[in-house]
Amino acid sequence: MSKKRVFLGFIILVLTFIGCFAQEKPQILINLAHNDGRSGDIELIQSEQMERLLMMQIANNRQQNGIPGYRILIFSQSGQAARQRADEARVSFMRNFPNMEAYPEYNLPNFQVFVGDFRTKTEALRERKNIEKTYPRAFIVNAIIDISK
Questions:
Q1: I want to staple 118 with a disulfide (CB 3.0 to 4.6 A). Which of 13, 85, 123, 126 is the partner?
Q2: Domain boundaries, the chain
Q3: If residue 53 lies in a helix (H) or strand (E), which one and from where to where?
């Protein structure tokens, strides 16, 4: 039975690896290769290995539904009314900061509300200064952030 599991795992790994290379070129490479006549010429010289690595990184990012970054934790509480208070904190935050997303999560035993999608800690620190006026206990945490925004 163990050999079957190893073989099945190997087959899944190979199919996943093949799927990474079957994807179309990223839009950035297509845009760089296209010359619209209004701008200078760009010649992109890279090895096939580099393109494969780029495709693997893109596939990895899609599987994670984001990239490593930072969010700000504004609420964390446990107890009977914690879920309701977390939702109230999220709604209040969205009212005060309408241009920033709020993400409620349940991490046993706490209901938590994280806000923002920051690629760098500097961005998160800058925004935390504004948020601390309303949420003085806010702090920055590592997170997988949404890259579609």
A1: 123
A2: 2-64, 67-145
A3: helix 48-64
